[in-house]
Structure formats: C-alpha cells, structure tokens
Amino acid sequence: MNNRSWTTKRDEKRKKLASVQHLVKGKIIDAKNMKEALECLISSGDRVVLEGDNQKQASFLSEALNSVDPKKIHDLHMIMSSISRPDHLTLFEKGIGSKIDFSYAGPQSLRVAQMIEDGMLKMGEIHTYLELYGRLFVDLIPKVALVAAEKADEKGNLYTGSNTEETPTIIEAASFKDGIVIVQVNEIVEELPRVDIPSDWVDFVVQSPEPYQLEALFTRDPSGITELQILMGMMAIRGIYEKHNVQSLNHGIGFNTAAIELLLPTYGESLGLKGKIAKHWTLNPHPTLIPAIESGWVESIHSFGGEVGMERYTAARPDVFFTGKDGKMRSNRALCQVAGQYAVDMFVGSTLQMDYYGNSSTVTSGRLSGFGGAPNMGHNPHGRRHSTPAWLDMITTNSSMERGKKLVVQMFETYGQGNSPVFVESLDAIKVRDEADLATTPVMIYGDDVTHVVTEEGVAYLYKAEGLEERRQALSAIAGVTKLGREQSPKEMRKLRDRGLVALPEDLKVKRTEAKRSLLAAKNVRELVQWSDGLYDPPEKFKNW
Amino acid sequence: MNNRSWTTKRDEKRKKLASVQHLVKGKIIDAKNMKEALECLISSGDRVVLEGDNQKQASFLSEALNSVDPKKIHDLHMIMSSISRPDHLTLFEKGIGSKIDFSYAGPQSLRVAQMIEDGMLKMGEIHTYLELYGRLFVDLIPKVALVAAEKADEKGNLYTGSNTEETPTIIEAASFKDGIVIVQVNEIVEELPRVDIPSDWVDFVVQSPEPYQLEALFTRDPSGITELQILMGMMAIRGIYEKHNVQSLNHGIGFNTAAIELLLPTYGESLGLKGKIAKHWTLNPHPTLIPAIESGWVESIHSFGGEVGMERYTAARPDVFFTGKDGKMRSNRALCQVAGQYAVDMFVGSTLQMDYYGNSSTVTSGRLSGFGGAPNMGHNPHGRRHSTPAWLDMITTNSSMERGKKLVVQMFETYGQGNSPVFVESLDAIKVRDEADLATTPVMIYGDDVTHVVTEEGVAYLYKAEGLEERRQALSAIAGVTKLGREQSPKEMRKLRDRGLVALPEDLKVKRTEAKRSLLAAKNVRELVQWSDGLYDPPEKFKNW
Questions:
Q1: Which residue among A72, A97, A115, B387 is least packed, with the fewest CB closer than 10 Å?
Q2: What sections of the protein cross the membrane (chains A, B) (predicted)?
Q3: pLDDT classification of A413: cutoffs 50, 70, 90
Q4: Do A352 and A417 form a contact (C-beta atoms < 8 A)?
Q5: Are B259 and B516 in contact (CB under 8 A)?
Q6: CA A523, CA A517: separation in Å to the nearest integer?
Q7: Helices vs. strands in chain A: H and E counts, helices first
Q8: Model confidence band, residue B2 (pLDDT cutoffs 50, 70, 90)
Q9: Quick check: A381 and B383 CB within 8 A?
Q10: Beta bridge partners of B147
C-alpha cells in the first residue's frame, strides 16, 4: 500500500555488522579491536544498554566504551540498571553519553546528583528494575546491548552460571528488535557447562583481559550485628512472621534482616516455628541464611543473582536453590522480581528516612540513589488475585470488596547513620526533587503501602491504622526519643497497645535481656563457613582468621 | 553438619529418567510410547504444569496425560495458566488430577464451577498470569512440565517461533529445580530456524501426530463492529487518548478496542494525532491493527503471543514487531505482562458487570472464569517510579507525596450480553465467592484502580472523583437508562460536566452523526487482507469470500 521500508533497523544492523568484518573472526572480537569495533557498531544518539547489575558489571565493555572517540560517538542515551562504576559516569563527562535512564546508583549517587546540577547529565527516569526491563520492550528498545557472561563457545552460546541476573532479559530486548548484542566473557571454551543464552541471540563475543567485576553485595558479617538489631529481629519474628503465618518472603540487604536470618535456627526454633514459617524465599544467596538452610528451615530459594563465595555452597544444595544440569546456580533478576512482587507474602527492608506518615526514602540530601527493586517488592500489588493466610490476615473490614495485602515491613533503629533520627518531618527527597527537577518526589516506599514498622521500641501495625492521624500516632509510639516519639502520651500509648496498633517487646513476650549476640546461630563469618561444611568461600575482605 | 541429603530432587529425577530408557532414543520419545513414559515419569501427587496458554495448547500431551491409568497416577496438582480444552477437566473426572491452580478458564468456566460444587475439583487459587509464573519459582515449583513448541532438533533445542508465549518461563521453573521437561513439537528437524530454548533445559521431545492446538483468539472481524462501538471509540480517542497524551498502551480483546484500532487511521488522522499518540503497544498482533500500522501510526509492538494468520505479516514488518534472526516474530508472555503492567500509560478493557462504585468482574453466575492478565495490567502499579505525561496527568492534588497513575479504562455498552445491564448493584462474583468457597470475591478490576469508564453515553473521569459517592454519581451520569442511570438529575449532570468528571459526546466535540461504519479503516476481514498487502492469512472461519 505504500513504499516505505519496514526493515530499516535490520538493514542498518546488516550494514554495521558488515563494517566490522575486518575486526572479527566469526562472532569473536579480539579485545584489542574493541574500541574500533564499538566505533563502527555504535552511532551517536543510539540507545545503549550497558550491563551494570547490582553486583555484576560489564566492566571491560564499560572501559572500552569510555575509550571511543567522543568526536565519533557522542550523545548516547545510556540505560543502566545500576550506575556502579566511576567510568559509568566518566562516559558523560566525555560527552560520549548525554542522557541516562537507570534504577540504582548506590556508590555513585552523589556524583549523579552533582552532574545533573552541572548540566553534564540529562536525567531520564528513575525506575525499579522491573519497570526498566519492561520499557526495554516498549519505549526504550535498545540499539546496542553491552553485557557480561562467564563463558562463551565459538558459536556465541553463553554460560552465565550463578550470575545470570538480567543478562538474558537485556539481550532478548535488543536481539529480537535488530539491536546489536556484544558480550564480554571471562573465557571462550569449546564446550559450555550448560547453555543459558542461545548463540542466535548474540552478535559478538569478546574475551575480556580481566574477569568481569563482581561485588559481594549481599554478604553481612555477623560480627557487625548489634544487640539492638537482635531485639528488633526477635520482635519481627514474634510480632510479624509468627503472628501472620508468613510462608514466603523477600529480605533486603542489611544487618537487620541478617539478624533475623541468624535468629531463625535459635530463637525461632525455641518458639517451635521451624517448618511453619519462612519456608520460601526470593533473594540472593545470603551467607547469613546458611545456618537456617542447614537446620532445615528453608524449602526453596529463587535468586535475582548470585553472591561471591556462595558458588560451591549453592551447587551442593540443589534441593533448596535453583541449579542447572551442570550443578551451578541459576538466577534470573526479572523473574525473581516478578516472584518477589507477586508471589511472596512479605517484603522486609530498611530506609534512611521515614516521614511521620510512613513514607520513606533512601534518597537523601545531594544523593540521587534510586531504589533498585525495593519499590517493586515493597508495595501492595493491586493486581494480585491469589490469597495466602498472611495476605488475608491484613483484612480489617468485612466489605465484600475487601482483599488481602502484601506485608511490607520497614525495620530500622530510631537513630540511624550519623546518629540522626530516621523519622523526619519532611523527607530530603522533596528537596532533591526540586533540585534535580524531577516530576515527582523520589519516594522509595509510600506510607499507604507499608503494613508494619519495626524499631528498637516496638512494632507499629500500620495496616490497622484508620487514616493518616492514626498512622502518625502508631509511628510516634515506636519513635523513641526522636521529636516524633516525644509526641506520645502514656495514655495514648495504652490505647494503641490495647487496640493492637502497637506492640512493645513485653506485648510480644520478647525479653530485652535475651537479646544477646549469643543468640545468633553464627557470630562471625568463620562460623558461617563451619555451618556450610566448608562449602562457603568468603571473599578475602571478610576473612580475619 | 548433618547427614540429610540435599539432592533428593536430583536423585529422584535421575531414577525417573533411567526408568524410561527403554522407551526413548536420546531425548526423543515416540508418540506411541507417551502414555507409558508418562506413567514412569510422573508420580501421584506431583505438581504438573500443563501448557495451556490463551491460544496455544500442549494438546497431544494433554490427551496423553488423560490416557494414563488413574490407578497408577492420581491426585496430581495441576497448574494451567488457561483451562481451555475439555480434556483439561476430564483429567479431574478421572481422578488423575485433584487440585488446580489457574489463571483463566474461558470456555470451560461453567464446568469448572460445577466440578468444584460437585467436589470433583479442589480449587487452588485464581491468579493473573504473572502471579502464577511468580509462584512457579516460589511455592508452586513444578515436578513436571508438559509444554508445546513448533520444532525441535535431535538434541532437544527448541524453536517456539511466533508463539513463544509462556513456554520458556514454565521450562525455566521446572528445569532448574530438577523437574522433568517434556515438549511436544510439530516437527523434529535437523537444523532449527533459530533456538528459542536451549536443549540443556529440555529432557524429552515428542513429535506429536497433530500440530499443537492454536486458536485465533485476538481476531475480530470488523464487520461485527457496531456504530455504537464506533461512537464510543471516537469518545475514547478524543476524551482519553488525545486528552492525556497516551503514548504507550495495551488493548484487551474485543470489538470496542478493535473499533479504536480501526478509527486511528481515519478519525485519529483527521484530528492530526498521527505520530502524537498510541505509538508503543503491548499486545498480540491484532489483525485490526494492520491499517494503523500501515498508515505509520505504530512504532513498536511487543506481544504476549502470536495470532493465527499474522505470521507472514509480522515477519514482513520487523521495524514494528519483535522478530528473530529467522524473521519470525518473538513473543514472551511473562515479559510482555511485565511491560504491560509497568511500562505503558494505559490499559483498555471491557467487562460483563460493573457495580455502582466501579468494581468489575467477568465472573458471573455459575461461571468461574478467572481473569488472565487483565488485573495485572488493569491496576495502578504502586511500584512504578518513572513518569510519563499521561501518568502525571492523573495527579489531582499538589501534595509533595503525590504521584501519577496508570490509566485503567473500562469500555462497555450500558446493556451487554443478553440485553442485561452491565451496571449492577451487586456483582454476581460475590455469590460465586460464597458458592465456590473462595477467600475473596473474584473481582477483575477494583473500582479504586479504574480511572475512566466509557459507555455509549459518555466518559466518566473516575480519577477525579473524591470519595465513593462521587464515583457513583459519575458512573450514574453515563449509565443511560439502567437503574443506576435513572438516579441522575439534570442539575447534577450539569455539575459533573462542569467539573470535568463526566464528558458527553458534545463536550468532546464528537458528533453522533459521524459515528458511521464508513469511518472504519477496514470494514471487513477482506479489507484487512488488502491493507496487509496480502500478507495477512485469516483463518478459514473469518473468510466469506
């Protein structure tokens, strides 16, 4: 009906592939040709996904992209789930990139904010991981994907092993829309232990001079767990896990949840809860879960990604972890986020600030950190239609339209980092919104999605609160000596406790005097190794023996 | 630390695989050995996923499972995203299965309800597709997966082509947890056009005597579109798509949305909207989208699955559709649902009943249908953090915690099937909950998630309604001569229109007299074929020439 071409993307790709034939051998690019190859394969203004997961970085490709001539390639629209490496931002200083869409910018969050202020970086949007993956198939379809795998064969089949992460999702978006897929691998081998991604989806493979960067992000040394955290953990177990019959859950990163993991085989066991709660998990293989796994608490764990040092352990526990025919773990960030949103009873996380109505954010003054997966898992998914006992337990009315809720738990000490109160009248995030000219305030978890808050003072059952004022009162009751906490009168406190809106340790039969480090199933990393039967290999920095 | 085995699942799988060695050749099972093989590979009580997508059915494996001896194999816990075939339920009549977890039961919904009442079927839960996939990695991890692909090679690599659908997701859950994966294929070939699923994930392949069942679920014949539907479509385009600057969207199945698709190149064009709205889509390749695609309205479409007859057309339009290196479309139900939840501005669907507060359900008396993906896409995802113009347009306050909303649109005529009013005081779903002993009422979309309702009378902008009473009034204003509609007074109507809570055709400058079938870009299937340049091959039942 008309003469327009419907294969412009495919034709462009074909041309680009032809332009590097002198630099490649089949699908293999030699590392030393990478700069030149990128200058042929990428055009200015292209949408480029650079793999930076939470832990796993396409570090060689990131460096190679930094080495291209900004006169040849500039103003790329970069998509990175995590801005983790300094060179992720150097790209923008050089003008190779100009716009960024991302999910998380932990260690680089200060610099991100500064560069936006300086006009060096044009901000796209902050996403949860899952939103960003979704947009890769809608309005952020990539022209080029730069990703990392463990091994490849000569044909370009990929082995991603324990750290499969988001690699297949990114590749799928690019590959099936005539994008160019370039993969750095630690090793090119004749036969792969298993195929995680078929070669048909891959255009080029480069053996990186160094293995890809991998961080042990989910490892918490039990020696760092305080008795206040143990007290909070005991309250959480009694007042939430046991009370609501929580079967499946996700734990965020942090010492609070590490404490709970280490209390299950001791305190949890003493309450007779083994086999009754916390059986199914969606989280990375936390080393602090080893004692609970070994004691038979855990039926299954599906993971977003791997964890450095846990490779041999996970491989030896296939009844618990998802593993492949080669024995190694299989992770999948997109599917695990789906499970973490829709298929578990509870999310437990922490925050740097919470306002008096339960809104929380880790975006604080001058830091544009993003939230990774927390908002995705830390909200009540309105699309959920199946029920579980914990979900139904959140019902507070008997309307025929009533349904359950996901348990969204925030745990923190009333005074946080730098000894400043976590409860604040107004989130720094509001200021950051204005400074960085964001469309909305970067809130991590909204107050109306939070069902429980745990501090060292007690548990606030926010799902029972009727209206904002009551939510504020319940938070005040567990806010200690912070400004919010001082609002509380003994009479009001009594009322809140009687109505079950707040529980103090004594209400939960948790004895403060029992909250000792001796209650932890493992007190240090060495004991985790012992629990693992020598299968856990902690990174050097966690070894002090 | 203890002597328990951590490889019980792997050991059991090894034994099962060994037990069928006399029936297989490598990974290939001969169709005539299927019954015996299943009797060896499945144990009573096992959790078994049987692929029944919306359109694609593992029909041979479903029949084979029905042929096993119920004395040998009984009380299976079946997981089926869609209960579509009579033999899906015969399984339970025979006692081979006893419990079911599912998402959708369209044509079998009456029988499902009856069998539950008769105690023949133990109901698990009703899920959205995405919830069900999530649970496959948490607490519904399958022991056996019975799925369908188009082709396999001798090694067990799979080609799923246009209908990739949910196959890789199901296989991933089973395969990486030592489950057994059995795939029926239409053809075993030497070389696949492309590999969609690597052979490492597959245990057995059987060449089915008949190709797998495939239904043309998303095909709507334009000759069935009424002038009332055209009027509603015009109102939707002006009053929603244009008004809110909708860039990305999902359309459900139905004549209402088919009308909109066919109005874009005519009515939409006359409004100068081409290139401005409705550019990115998440939906199956609807034939009624062909004229909009050919006219240059559509930048991208990512699909849950394929559509019968659209194979050559999608292959010839790779700039729009996701396609593989062999040229054929690639779909992915799980990722498209993620995109449809999180990455698009708007969902437009229909319903059989809506109560006076906007709660809707397609579960009506005696029918336990489930909802497929509608609730997943038809809700406001609280985990969303990125903004778009349409999303921001839903903001009605200036609180610093305010954020946008997904547009969730319900479109229907005030009198529906059997000439009964769609607006009802109480949803039949409440009765069904009681009869089938469900934990909550099977609501498809909750009133508090619906932003717009369109009837032949006008558009109700529910996102602007403050409180339940106002929501009811806005609905009443577009409820025509139904009982709810008769509540409306002219004075109230005036007020609602002035406040922008309701728009009538004249408010939107939509002329009723222009709502003619001549406004459709294609008036019948034959014209769709013409628009497609002969690339669309409609199934026989849609051909009347």
A1: A72
A2: none
A3: very high
A4: yes
A5: no
A6: 7
A7: 19, 23
A8: low
A9: yes
A10: B183
Q: Is there a domain that residue A517 lies in?
A: no
DSSP line for A45-61: T-EEEE-B-SSEE-HHH
Burial A167-179 (b: 16+ CB within 10 A, else e): bbbbbbbbbbbbb
How high is the mean pLDDT of chain B? 96
Inform me whether the C-beta atom of residue A386 falls under 8 Å from chain B C-beta atoms: yes
A397: buried, middle or exposed (CB in 10 Å: 19+, 13-18, 0-12)?
A: exposed
Interface membership of A457 toward B (CB under 8 Å): no
Query: What digits encode the pLDDT tens for the residues B343-389?
Result: 999 999 999 999 999 999 998 888 888 899 999 999 999 999 999 99
Question: B382, A383: Cβ pair inside 8 Å?
Answer: no
Q: Report, as an integer, the average pLDDT of A32-46.
A: 98
pLDDT at B488 over 60: yes
Please indicate, yes or no, whether residues B109 and B156 belong to a single structural domain of this protein. Answer: yes
A257 is in which domain, residue-wise? 216-342+522-533
Phi, psi angle pair for A515, to nearest 5°: -75, 75
* pLDDT bucket at B11, cuts 50 / 70 / 90: very high
Are A54 and A168 contained in the same domain? Answer: yes
Mean pLDDT of B28-41: 98
Rg for chain A (alpha carbons), in Å?
24
d(CA A264, CA A205): 45
Residues B281 and B292: their CA atoms lie apart, in Å, by 12
Q: How far B203 CA lies from chain A's nearest CA (Å)?
A: 11
Q: Are residues B279 and B184 in the same domain?
A: no
B334/A335 CB distance under 8 A:
yes
Q: Phi and psi dihedrals of A355, rounded to 5?
A: -85, 180
For residue range B296-350, list pLDDT tens digits in order.
999 999 999 999 999 999 999 999 999 999 999 999 999 999 999 999 999 999 9
Burial level of B95, CB count in 10 A (0-12/13-18/19+)?
middle
Distance in angstroms (rounded) separating the CA atoms of residues B259 and B262? 5
Query: Is residue A258, in this structure, part of any structural domain at all?
Result: yes
Whole-complex ipTM: 0.98
pLDDT exceeding 70 applies to what percent of chain A?
Answer: 100
Residue A540 inside a domain? The answer is: no
**Exposed e or buried b per residue across B200-215, where buried means at least 16 C-beta atoms within 10 angstroms of its C-beta:** bbbbbbbbbeeebbbb
* B227 in the same domain as B205: no
Same domain, B470 and B333: yes
Q: Is B397 found in the same domain as B329?
A: yes
Residues B232, B153: one domain?
A: no
Same domain for A470 and A352, yes or no, is: yes
Here the CATH number for the domain that contains residue A145 is 3.40.1080.10
Mean of the per-residue pLDDT values of chain A: 96
Phi, psi of B372 (to 5 degrees): 60, -125
DSSP A162-174: GG-TTHHHHHHHH
Question: CB contact, 8 Å: A303 with chain B?
Answer: no
* Residue at a domain's end among B166, B192, B214: B214
Within a domain: B538:
no
Amino acid (one-letter) located at A179: G
CATH number of the domain at A403, please. Answer: 3.40.1080
CB contact residues (below 8 A), chain B span 252-281, against chain A: 279-280
- Position A27, amino acid: K
Rounded distance, CA A455 to CA A229, Å? Answer: 9
Residues of A in contact with B194 (CB under 8 A): 198, 200
Structural domains of chain B, count: 2
- Going by C-alpha positions, the residue among B182, B244, B155, B179 that lies closest to residue B51 is B182
Contacts of A480 (CB under 8 A, 6+ apart): A414, A415, A455, A456, A457
User: Which of chain A's residues have a Cβ under 8 Å away from the Cβ of B126?
Assistant: 385-386
Domain boundary among B173, B198, B214: B214
- What's the CATH number where A228 sits? 3.30.750.70
